[in-house]
Every structure is written in C-alpha cells, then in structure tokens.
Amino acid sequence: MERHHDLPLDRRLRQETLLARERVYHFADPTPLEPLEWEGLDLWVKREDRSPIKAYKWRGACNRMSLLSDEEKERGVVTASAGNHAQGVALAACKLGVKARIHMPRSTPRVKQDAVAKLGGDLVRIILSGDSYDEAVASARDDEARSGAVYIHAYDDLHVMAGQATLADEVVLSGKGPFDVAYLQIGGGGMAAGVAEWLRTYWPDIELVGVEAEGQASMKAAIEAGTPVTLQELDIFCDGTAVRKAGELPFEILRNQLSRVETVTNNEVSAAIKTLWEGLRCISEPAGALGLAAALKNRDQLQGKRVLLVLCGANIDFLQLGHIAASQGAAARHQRTISVAIPETPGTMRQLLDRAFAGLNIADFQYGKVDGTDARPVFTLTSDHPEDLEALPQRLSEDGFAWQSLDGAIDVQFRAIPLRSDLLLHPLFLRLEFYERPGALHDFLHQQLPDDTNLCYFNYRQSGERIGRALIGLDFTTQAKLDHFLTELQPQGDGYRLCQPLDAEAADRLIATRTET
Predict the structure, then answer these.
(1) Cα distances (Å, whole numbers) of residue 452 to 232, 241, 455, 473, 474
(2) Do 229 and 221 touch, CB atoms closer than 8 A?
(3) In 3-state terms, what secondary structure has residue 317?
(4) Which terminus of the chain has a smaller tally of CB atoms within 10 A, N or C?
(5) Are 136 and 106 a contacting pair, CB within 8 Å?
(6) Taking a C-beta distance cutoff of 8 angstroms, is the pair 188, 243 a contact?
(7) Residue 175: C-alpha distances to residues 170, 232, 306, 504 (Å)
(8) Is the link from the previous residue into 501 a cis peptide, with omega within 30 of 0?
(9) Distance in angstroms (rounded) separating the CA atoms of residues 153 and 131
(10) Residue 458 near residue 415, CB atoms below 8 Å
(11) How far apart are CA 20 and CA 29, in angstroms?
C-alpha cells in the first residue's frame, strides 16, 4: 500500500481536501453560491465575502493550524500576509489558543489591519514589515529562524491548498452544477490549485481558466518559463493577488489543470466591481473581481454556458473604493479625452459646446488661461453611443477646431491645470453646483454669462453624485463690469446653485499656485 507522502501531488491534494472537510467547519460555516444575472450570461458567484473574515483565506489557515502538535502550539506561529491570510491565521489562533506574529506590509489597508487585531485579540501581534508582500515574507522568515515559531504559508502549502479547496467541495455539493467553465483568480495560486483539482475530479470536462491582473501575472510567467520565476515589476492595485513569484506546489497543479491563463486590466477589474454591486449589491476587493472581469471580457464566448466565479474577498480600503467608484462614473460609458485649440475670444467656448459637443456628456473639464490669443481646454467626453464619439473628430474639423487626443495623459489624470496671473485683468472665481443632467452646465454658460465674458479657468469632474461641482474663473475687462455681473447674477437658476465666490485670499492662492511662466 502506498504511503501518503509517496503519492503524486494531485492525489495527496485530493486526499487532504477530504480530510479538510472535517476540520474547517469547526471555525466557520459554508458560504452561499448565488446567481448573477448579467447581459444574458449564466453566472454563479461563490460568495466568500460572506465568511467570518470576508474572504476565503480562513479555510487554508484554519486547516493548516488544526494540524499543529502540542509542541508546535507552544512555539507559536508566524506568517506574512497582505491581509486576508492574516485574518485567517488570527481567526485560527484565537480559537486554538495559539500565539501568532503576523508580518504585514506597511501599505496594508487599515481595514485589514483592524480586522486582524479584532479577530486575534491578545494572541496576535501585527508587525508592519517593508513596503511589499515579499519584504514582509523576508521579515517573517527571519522571525521564524530566530524564534523557532511555525511558519504558516499563505499559499505554498499542501494543507493550505486543501483547505481552500473546500469552497469547491461546497460548489459540487450545492446541486447547481455541473459548470462548463470556472474563472479562478491567482495570486500565489493556492486557492486556484485546490479548487481546480477538486472541480476537475467531479466535472472532468470543465474548462478551468486562471485569471491574473496585468502587472502581476506570476503564474502566467511561470507556465511560460516552465518554472516559477520572479517578476521584476509588480502592480498592487489588486493587492490581494500581488505576488511576485507563484508558489511551487500550486504551479505543479495548475500547469496541468488550467486550460489557459488570462490577464485583465485594472479598469476591467473596476468595471467588474461595479457589476457585482449592481447585480448582487455586494462590494468586492479588486482581487475578488478578477474572475468576473475575465468573464465579462469573454461574454460572447460564454453565451449558453454555466459559469462559476469566486468572489474571494471584500476587504477593500474605503478610500480605494471611492477611487474605483469615481473612475467608473465615466468609464461606464464610452469616453475619450481631448484638447481642443480655440481662439481666446468670448463666445468661442459656447460655439464649441453648442456644435461639436452637441449630444455628448462632459465628464471632466480642465482649463486655465496660459496664452493671450489661444486656449487649449481639456475635455473628457462620454456617450452611451460610441458612434457619437467616433464622429467627434469630423465635427471638430468641420467647425474649424484643431484637436489632440489626451487619453491616459498623466497631467490630465493629476489635474495639473496651469493659469497665468499676468494675463488676467479683473478675475472672479465662483464655486458652482448644478444638477447632473444633460445640458445643465451648458445652460449656465449660456444663460448667466455675458457675451463679452472671458472664461479663464474651469475645473470640473463628474463624481457620480446627483450634484456636480465646478470651480470656474471669469475675467472682465473692467472692475465695473465685474461688479455689475455680481449684482445681476442670481444665486440659483435653472439647474444650478451658486456657492459664494472665492474670497480674495483663496483666489490669490489659486492664481499663485497655478502660474506657468
């Protein structure tokens, strides 16, 4: 009879998954499998965000720590984690009464640090080590060598992989299968390996697709090289899967089980997070939405197929969530960013809005006066109809406007809006609020600004709220005209409300800090 450690890795993994069934449910309950109706696709989402740690990592950590001997428990454990594995170790440490030291990168979101502290209590000590997961691992390994504590690996461990595979066991037992295809996100590969092996065991014909974010595709690089390799550059937008080198054991499983590995962009991940919110009213961390991002990318090929996705975590920093939501406000539609050359004369901006931009939505408007004769305002324009944006260059040319594409321009992304104070005569800066409806901004410019008013500054970005906010600068030829404008300007009108003008000190700071010589 073959001994357990003499068996091939895939057979050992299947055996350990069966044994993990008895262990993991002492710590938490199974998570739901829910349908996501979206664009005619038959999508099913394994809701690991509904676990005690809002991620799947409790499974592997609890399974591995359940195997600690009394002597190992006395020594304690040490690990490194970007957040979710740390919470799994903290959960197990608390229930088993084992002391744990958890090394986390200094950049770990506060929500994950707080969750680890809450789950582990006095038994867990958080040590912020380095600026990346790899630096935290190095620190934890040094700790292991010095202290003799047991190292609990986040993914490159047979028992951790088997624990993660219990989520696939729940899928098989749910009665919702069989599934035609499963999209499995990959960081180090522990979850993907355990799940892939279990799904293939029960549904041999299932298509298994690994998914990684661009800039952190360590498993794809490993498969192409024939062995795990270290990535030189690492994007950490999807922080839960930001691993420079795929695990050795997961690699041995996935190189044989995966049909392919796909990569998705951060913007595609953000769109998938938005889809999960709209379809299930749940919030995913970026890594948790990788699978859905790939599925949406392949929607045409998935018609008529039953698709399995794993929402592997929801531990997202609130500030990052705000950034994603803001970016998707415009990205949900087709968009393009352009700079348009217009003469620095009153009325030209209105002509541009009236004619070339008719029917388009202005999602972002940046402009500061830097030349006495020519202006180059920057617009991000969106539309539900891509053909309208495709026709924009021709419309601009027909109206005599030269333009330049600025999609992805760094200065636009960071809102670097120059403004020359020496070109201004009698400036006035106004804070304006208006309803986010088509034409509201256009109506204000038409109805409230005198024909001879020179627009010298505009800073507006669509935020997704029902109210839009803009900071605009107007320049008048005389002080008397400025005073008359303030006298006639109504505090609110059709679609807008005027916040008080900037005081002199704030206006001086704006001009001083935006000056370009």
Answers:
(1) 57, 56, 10, 14, 10
(2) yes
(3) coil
(4) N
(5) no
(6) yes
(7) 9, 43, 13, 69
(8) no
(9) 19
(10) no
(11) 13
Backbone angles phi, psi at 354, to 5 degrees: -70, -40
Three-state DSSP class for residue 370? coil
Sign of the CA dihedral with 315 first, then 320, 321, and 324 last? negative
Q: How far is Cα 153 from Cα 79, in angstroms, rounded to an integer?
A: 6
Q: How many helices (H) and strands (E) does the chain have?
A: 20, 20
Q: Which helix (H) or strand (E) holds 268?
A: helix 266-280
Per-residue pLDDT tens over the stretch 458-517: 888 776 666 778 888 889 889 999 888 888 887 777 667 777 778 777 778 877 655 544
What is d(CA 64, CA 249) in angstroms, rounded to the nearest whole number? 15
| Alpha-carbon gap, residue 380 to 402, rounded angstroms | 16
pLDDT for the residue 443: 72
Mean of pLDDT values over 416-439: 83
Domains delineated in the chain? 4-48+159-328 (3.40.50.1100), 58-151 (3.40.50.1100), 333-514 (3.40.1020.10)
Please name the residues in contact with 15: beta carbons below 8 A apart, sequence gap of 6 or more.
4, 7
Helix, strand or coil, per DSSP, at residue 509? helix
Q: Identity (one letter) of the amino acid at 497?
A: R
State the pTM of this model: 0.76
C-alpha dihedral over 277, 280, 282, 287, to 10 degrees? -80
Q: 14: part of which helix (H) or strand (E)?
A: helix 9-24
Pairing type for strands 378-383 and 402-405 reads unpaired
Helix (H, G, I), strand (E, B) or coil at 303: coil
Q: Tell me, letter by letter, the H, E, C secondary structure of 125-163.
A: EEEECCCCHHHHHHHHHHHHHHHCCEECCCCCCHHHHHH
For the CA atoms of 146, 149, 155, 158, the dihedral, rounded to the nearest 10 degrees, stands at 120
